[in-house]
Write a structure and sequence with these properties.
222 residues; mainly alpha; 7 helices; 0% strand; globular
Length: 222
């Protein structure tokens, strides 16, 4: 018997809710896993993987999942409150990323090692710079009157699209970090593959959320 449109819609929403909850758990679990591996405070370097995973795996993921209709932890809050929480989490993520970048740069300097010579280093630098610009761009949504020549709807679409690109850059940087000597000597076998799967899974969930909320809706408009 063919499924009705209403039933298909209910199944689809349920799947999105499950995937969103999974993204919550995975982002938190991966960050805790890295914290256990790095043992922040045991060395100067140990703060780098911890802060970067905290920024791009947990805080940024949660900042975006706030707007998920099915799995947001703040579903009962107003849109304005969600925006404020989103901004606070994104700013906190940026501060963690900047601190993580400063720490690894100083650690490289102390050990007389070249920096930004690997794909991970270059992608990480690009991601932090991009996140900085994205946060600055977010001010336009907090105070849309500053952008008189742009409609609020258009600003939201552009911010969501560029934000998705920034999030994917962050996930790519995390994945490249898992190819580093520090990570591959610590995590091997099945654990390594499961670790790589974490940013892939969360990026797919966030891509689906953003495309359904903005990009797909924009495309079907006449």
């Amino acid at each position: 018997m063919a499924l009705t449109i209403e039933t298909e819609s209910r199944i689809y929403r349920s799947l999105r809710a499950v995937s969103g909850i999974t993204a919550h758990l995975v982002s938190l679990g991966f960050t805790i896993f890295v914290a256990i591996l790095a043992r922040p405070g045991s060395s100067l370097f140990s703060w780098h993987p911890f802060l970067m995973s905290l920024a791009f795996s947990f805080l940024m993921t949660e900042a975006l999942l706030i707007f998920s209709p099915e799995s947001s932890l703040l579903r009962s809050f107003s849109r304005k409150a969600k925006v404020r929480f989103h901004w606070a989490l994104q700013l906190l993520a940026l501060l963690c990323a900047l601190l993580g970048l400063a720490i690894i740069s100083y650690n490289k300097y102390l050990n007389s090692k070249a920096h930004f010579v690997t794909w991970h280093g270059l992608t990480g630098l690009l991601t932090v710079l991009y996140a900085s610009m994205q946060c600055i761009g977010g001010v336009a949504l907090l105070y849309p009157k500053l952008m008189k020549n742009w409609t609020l709807a258009k600003l939201k679409v552009y911010h969501a699209t560029s934000g998705l690109v920034g999030y994917l850059l962050g996930c790519a940087s995390l994945m490249l970090a898992m190819c580093s000597l520090w990570f591959t000597t610590t995590v091997t076998g099945l654990s390594w593959y499961l670790s790589v799967l974490c940013p892939i899974l969360t990026s797919l969930v966030i891509m689906n959320q953003v495309s359904n909320a903005y990009l797909y809706r924009k495309r079907i408009q006449p």
